[in-house]
# Entry
Amino acid sequence: MRDTRAELLMQAETLVRSRGYAGFSYADLAEAVGIRKASIHHHFPTKVDLAAALVAAYDVRYADGMAAIRAGTPDGPGRIVAYGRFYLGGVEQGLGCLCAALAIEGEALPERLRGDIAAFFRRHLAWLEEVLREGVADGSLRPDIDPSRHGRFILATLEGALLMERLFASPASFGDTLGALVESLTPPPRSP
# Structure
């Protein structure tokens, strides 16, 4: 049985991640899924409803992924690398981060979406701050790291690298940026 709602969300996510919120219409989505525009309105009465559902689903996927990283990766550097791999997937697919693609449109977005996107990024910053705090405490990260400041640095670096390497279609360069980022956070090796 066809799950039209799931197909709509999947295709809409690709459209937003590649074109932005203003860059697609229900006509584009109807064509991508192979249904009439009226059928989309049955599932998502407005484009804002659709985008809010996209952000919510994206947020759940990331939350699940971040929980898995915390559970399965024992140290700060490993957790940052695993988190960075989320972004590498976007580079490999030629797609931007959904919430960054939406955030770029800033004040042009409905207030509801701006709030949802801000909450998404606040959750990521809180997660990064905790990972950094734990990494400093266990000695896997430099002791002079300020979790709040460096959490923003990590998020901004990865979002910027995704944007740049998506343009250049360069997953290897993204990997180099991720490596340099992690290296900047780790203590230098101890001399024998």
